[in-house]
Amino acid sequence: MPWSNQNGGGGPWGGGGGGNNQGPWGKGPQGPRGGGGGNTPPDLEDLIRRGQDSLRRVMPGGAGGPGGSGKLIAIVVVLGLIAIWATQAIYTVQPDQRGVELRFGQPKSEVSMPGLHVIFWPFETVETVSIVERQLDSGGNSRSGSTSGLMLSGDQNIVDVEFKVLYTVNEPKNFLFNVARPEDTLRMVSESAMREVVGRRPAQDIFRDNREAISQEVRDIIQRVMDSFPAGVLVTAVSIEDAAPPREVADAFDEVQRAEQDEDRFVEEANQYSNQKLGQARGQAAQIREEAAAYKDRVVNEATGEAQRFESIYDEYAKAPEVTRKRLYLETMENVLRGSDKVIMGQDGGTGVVPYLPLPEVRKNAGGNQ
Question: Does the structural domain 134-245 have CATH classification 3.30.479.30?
């Protein structure tokens, strides 16, 4: 080497000869220090050996002698496997949950109720599901950019419907294994059912007139479709939160609503006026009918009385014609002369007889004296 002749075979940095065993910086490699140093790091093998000694003292029989380390490792492995099996085989079902056990991936017919349960893992596993009432929001406000709530009503109006579906899980096995994504399926079925019902009704029913009936009909359709899978879902209620026209036609729709309200008001006023006039006309007609009936009864009774009087007079006339004629004459003259002024004149001037008697003057004087 080029530097072998320098300093008796030292390195390129001027190290010592072969007997000094020095490195390139003038010092050779240092071995483990003696017991007086105090800074030597602990040996890994020494730590493992101390741990094994501690386990031997803990284990029954000391696990000493030939093959003791192998037995100890086997025991540790067995205990670890038992711990892992216990954590997987023992499970708890909460009060608001139900569990379905699976044996080789096939769900059992039994449902695990709340409490502590044990399965033969890994041949058996368990799936749990919550049974509390859940809420599914569907539809949306077109003002936020969502169009899922826009629907066509039966009278060709576009309405924006926002509604909620309340449901629970009544069949955990069907809910977990019959439908891949039951929540998404329920959402699609709910929107389809709402569109179907809204498409058969006028927009006025959705806005204010008949929301309760629409909600009930939608709930029945959703439940019938979900039961056809079956999905293990029980729909408890459907609530229409909001129904409004799209933003682009909101002003025109409000104008139409005001016109319809004015129409309803005019019709109501016309009905009130009609009822008033009809009531008056019916009252007048009833009064006229009553008066006509009374006049009819009076005329009939008078005619009947006159007829009976004539018959009675005729009967008397048949018995005594001369007397009856004279009587009729006198009664007739009495009726004729009753209201006229009368003057009595004597035909001959007899002694003591006043030839002229002014009866009207006498009557007046008699009335004034009274």
Answer: yes
